[in-house]
Amino acid sequence: MSSWKEIAAYLGVTVRSVQRWEKTGGLPVRRLGRGRSARVVAFSGELDAWVRAGGASAARSLSNATQGRRPWWRRWRPLGAVAAVGLAILALALRILAAPGEPESWTWSGDGVLTVRDARSRTLWRKQFPGRQDKPAFATQPPVLIADIDGDGRREVLVQRLPSEPSRTPSSLFCFERTGRERWEFRYNARKTFGGRSFEPEFQPQLVLPVRIAGRGYLVTVANHRIWYPSQVALLDVHTGRLIEDYWHPGLIRHCLLRDLDGDGREELIFAGINNPGEGFGHAALGVLKLPFSQARRSPSRADDRFPPPTGGGEYRYVLCPTPDVNRVAGIWPIPTELSVDHLGRIRLALPLPESGAVVYYFDDTLSVVEARFSDNFAALHERYHRQRLLDHSLSARELAELQRVVSFPAAPDGNHPELRRFWQY
Q1: Is residue 89 located within the same domain as residue 218?
Q2: 203-217, pLDDT tens digit by residue?
Q3: Are residues 140 and 173 in the same domain?
Q4: Structure confidence by residue, pLDDT tens digits, 370-399
Q5: Three-point CA angle 321, 326, 328, nearest 5°
Q6: Which domain holds residue 11?
Q7: Are 64 and 108 in the same domain?
């Protein structure tokens, strides 16, 4: 036999086995020549004698004993691969921890510097705004809102900017990317004329609310005039800050919330405020706007309309609440202190009374009153004002029933119209 293959075939094993037995078991193999080109030669008689002498058995035993022993670099190779993967994961984790996160919190210093931080309280960016930042009257929302307004999984920073002198510099809503890059600015600089009366663009931002219409993101903003009655509700494009459309209300708006009132799968905007154009206390108002606002049917104003809309109308639903006479005596405006939805799904509207009192109305989805409750001190307060001759009558069951009644209108009327008195006889 003149090759490893022939030798292996004769013994009935693999080529690697006979090569290993030559080194460790004394397999009788000869070589003709030198170096790598030398040929192996084996004689059958010598192979048979080696097998009979137990050479094959001894070689197999030795092979089995050493089969699991590999060079150290081969034995540690799997652990090295695991370690390499672990180091790669650790490096990735360190990069993630070291990288700036999403905007999470903010602070505004007295010198007009806005600082935005991530969840680990690391500063992401700072912006210097000129002048002092004022707080809007009746504010129910902080001037900075952090939210993913466009649905891309990254948060934007919305900044309601109210300069200390809005007569010189209009108020603005800024939108910043998570990196601090300014995306757009919307200025509350509309000049409006209602009923022959013009209003300068001195508006105070009240709140901003992200909304979705037909699967697309928008922003609803509310700004109240700094001195007089008109309030602007604006619908903005989240990508550009462009004004899509707006709605004007004859009085301050303080609260807003979203709710699907008609069951069409789209949310409406519910707002609460005071309707008081001109002189007088006016009335607390609860209104509903379709999104977009133009989706609501708008009835044309007639010449014989007893309650024409001073700012043009456009509401989907609208009601006025009675103003208690104790409020007029104490000089308390009926500006809503709360707008919410309770655990029964009712719309809850809270109005102030003198001396920390309140009246709470509960509405269904059609803005019909389901229940009205007065604070425990209301009857005693009314009686005390009567004894002090601030009121000319005692509280009667009829007056209490009238105060639990609201009136619906096709469009927002003038809340100080003298004809409104006929709805509440007290």
Answers
A1: yes
A2: 989 999 999 999 899
A3: yes
A4: 999 999 999 999 999 999 999 999 999 999
A5: 75
A6: 1-69
A7: no
